[in-house]
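Hello K.,

You asked for the raw outputs rather than the summary table, so here they are, unedited. I folded two proteins back to back in the same session to keep the settings identical. This is the first:
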Amino acid sequence: MIPAGAYAHHSVSIPADAPRRVSRVLMIAPTPFFGDRGCHVRILEEVRALRALGIEVEIVTYPAGADLPDVRIHRAASMPGVRVREVGPSYGRIPLDGSLLVTAARVARRFRPHCLHVHLHEGIAIGVPLRRRFGIPLVADLQGSLAGELADHGFLGQRGMLPALVRRVERWLVRQPDALLVSAQSGQDLLVSQGVDPGRVHWLPDGVDLEQFRPRAANPALVRRFGLEGRRVVVYLGVLTAYQGVDLLLDAVPEVVRAVPDAHFLIMGYPNEDAYRAQVAARGLSAHVTLPGRIPYAEAPDYLTLGCVAVSPKQSLTEANGKLLNYMACGLPTVASDTRVNRDLLGEAGVYVPVGDASALATGLAALLRDPDRRSAAGAALRARVERRFAWPALASQLAGIYERLSPPEAHATRS
């Protein structure tokens, strides 16, 4: 484990009005951006926060995804017969990544970026030849372990030749960038264990828009729509998969309802909505669980503030968990799996339960639902914590400082 002080020099930021060598950044996102989920939200908020500092950002991404009016997006050409899942790995990403490389090179020739900012491990593979071609720094933004994510999605086992090969490829990839950004402090230790120079690793946590996500009264129209009058509501908003703990959450519902009969679970997100609705019906939980499906990011605060408690029983030990910041900003007391990633975000104000323990999850939720004073105190503490540590203006300034340190004056003079 690397001492915290080893990374202290990475917190240097620059004032918004400071002269800068880096004013154009090309982001590469090998994912169907934009979707209403964690990694995509991080990308979007980074772009918006950097723009507030005067840094122009353009994004190159997959053919699928939602366009945004305030973000310049370039899409790779689609491939005949290739359809990529919105969530999780697939073999269709391999030819699309080749198309993404071609598109990124074309955009870079026109845009003339001062820095490449790539997301995910696939982004590194695309960014390495582009860095060589254009002679500019490469920054990689990682959400966890490549091998770990493939295993979490059931795409890869833990043992055998293929997992060993993936780990070797991952180890090579993470040594290539000039700087690596990790959203959880546990990611620092992982990268150093893979042979990365600690001086290249920067902790840049996920941030949150504190104006959009804030405590507010529940929307009466939504309360009526979901029949939540007189209910104590537990909210979840994220990807609907087993590794996110959705199955575990359903396992906990009966025990919570026995302890708190007016409890109701609003489980929001995608994909697999229909499969989980069928599971809820088969378990006889329909009176206590609602699955509205995909929630547009702009509407997320209205839906979250229907709850008096938020939950994240995520099973992954390495992947980031940005949904917690939205919970915190809305002032929601939060029950989460006891992982280092979650503790880094929630701090002492979180309520933690062992990973994979449905009974402990039910106990933690029921205790909060029965105690309004504890809920109020925890929610206020989490809002205060997110204001201090996870507001985007300060994080964007830190990110701009990383760009600046990687871009020598003489290199900028030749590219401007």
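The second followed immediately with the same parameters:
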Amino acid sequence: MVSGVSRGLSGFSEGGGGASMGRLMVSVSGLRGVVGDGLDPPTLVRYVAAYAGRLQRGASRPVVAVGTDTRPSRDMVLRIVAGTLQAAGCDVVDLGICPTPSVQLMMDKLGAAGAVVVTASHNPEEWNACKFYGSSGMLLTREEAERMWAVADSGRFDWVDWRRLGACVSDDGAAAAQIEAALSVADVGAVRKLSPLVVVDCVNGAGSVVTPAFLAELGCRPVLINADVDAGFPHTPEPVPENLGQLCRAVSERGADIGFAQDPDADRLAIVSERGEAIGEEYTLALSALRVLSKRKGTVVANLSTSRMVDDVAERFGCKVARSAVGEANVAQLMRRSGAVIGGEGNGGVMDPAVHLVRDSFVGMAHVLSLLAETGEPVSRLVGEIPSYVMLKKKMEISGDKARAVAAVADALGGSGLVDTQDGVKVTMGRSWVHVRPSGTEPVVRVMAEAPSREEAEALAARAIAVLEGSGS
């Protein structure tokens, strides 16, 4: 086992600040850390080599697509990733600065055996990471990731000699592939007729290279802020309301129909209404589901910590919601098993199987803009038609056994409602719920509660925290 590595195979925490500096975090989504303080060249080589070894078992000379977001360490990390793959006998296709969903789309075009995306998602600029995708086009499963990390820890890799080194070529087709895919699920005619004024904060991330052309092709009047890939992140990059003040002001000042915020690798999407109000990233999936279910009925998949707004939307069409453990890979696997028509996570991640089983901000924009055009309703009115809830997110430091502490919550609250133990414990009581799960990357237990009122949500969270405090942990 590598010293100082925090294992957490439930997926990266998309709503929190991550682990402390100096720790490398390894999960079902890949690995990430602070460059020079946990994430260094030898570490990158070890984990990428383990990934390459997995691909070598399926093809004698596998093709791997690689892309990156815009953080300052991108060139260094991307070159190490590409060189390591070549040294292991893989042919590399370098897509350059490229949204995460675009990399996955290029896998299909290239017939690639896998993909590596160099991105630390919503984390600040000092962080970087690698996300690893399998031949299925989805993030690795828990079992696949566990086997791969064991190889990384062993230090036993299969390097090839000079005659079998992989090649590395560049391909600039990712933007076109992304635009074509997102347009395929949009009502292009209706959006062009509406011609909405759309302000987008690309946070100077990978979305900057695709978003302007996509919105123009869709028939919008785009206004881009923070769309310079060399300028650095202009604010904390996670697209949550407290970071969207500039976007809210721009929407209000310009009288725009809607505002969108992407994260650095453009797989998450948040919305600002025509009133200049950040409505919260939980609405992205709810509004996308509203549009999809109005066209075709079927199962909706969301993780256990996603707002029950999606349940209310599904009930409107007589459809069901299936819940997975937290993590994009878990959502994708359940979507595939259940034949879902739409799915995703409450962090603004929309996944449409008509395109691919990857979070995609462009698909999210396509659905939300089409919904505006097809209904003729503004964002604020569409939001007002969905029952609202208050969601609280808390965490508690645990010095002892986190699993035992969570089990204590299940014992204490289990009799109050429906219990789901696939990822910690979630207890649903009518239109309220509380979800308690051990963090995979920090010595904490995360407590999330949602209810129709703040008082009810606070009471639920307090009950769970009281049990954790009394568990001896």
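Residues 1-22 have pLDDT under 50 and may be disordered.

Happy to rerun anything if the numbers look odd on your end.

Regards,
P.
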